[in-house]
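Support request, priority: normal
Reporter: lab tech (M.K.)
Component: structure prediction queue

Hi team, I submitted a job for Bet v I/Major latex protein domain-containing protein from Chlamydomonas eustigma yesterday, and the status page still shows it as pending. I've pasted the exact input below so you can check whether something in the sequence is tripping the parser. The sequence length should be 142 residues. Please let me know if I need to resubmit or if it's stuck on your end.
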Amino acid sequence: MATRVTESRVIQAPIDKVWEKIRSLDLSLWLDTVNKVELTGASGEVGSLRKVTFKDGTLQVFHLLELSDLHHSVTYDIIESHPAITVMSAVHSISLERISHDNTTFIEWSSDFSNDVNQEVLQDSKFKKQEGFASLIKALGV
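Reply from support: The job had stalled in the queue. We restarted it manually and it finished. Here are the results:
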């Protein structure tokens, strides 16, 4: 069974505008399902934490593993979740690429799960990424 879920999309906005929403890992800036994000540590500091409260009451703590302004990418894992998630681990990455032809942005969001993941979690991850892209497009006003 595959343990990676990847979704991608072309966003009709320049990479700098999209990166402005993604870089801080403050999902409340663009994800409709997030109520608030509380930051522990500096925004661009690897190792910093984000306490993410979703509108459905779910609370998760994201740990920033990697941040690259050069490559327009951010990687994080979820170190705490209430209610608990059903996998031992999951590492998520969002990366952007400039499309020079028309000054748009290619975005890719991938998640690598531990091998105890089931098909339901993989499908949910796929759906949430698609939903997230729609929210991002709405937040960008494009």
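The mean pLDDT is 94. Residues 4-140 form a domain with the Alpha-D-Glucose-1,6-Bisphosphate; Chain A, domain 4 fold (CATH 3.30.530.20). Let us know if anything else looks off. Ticket resolved.
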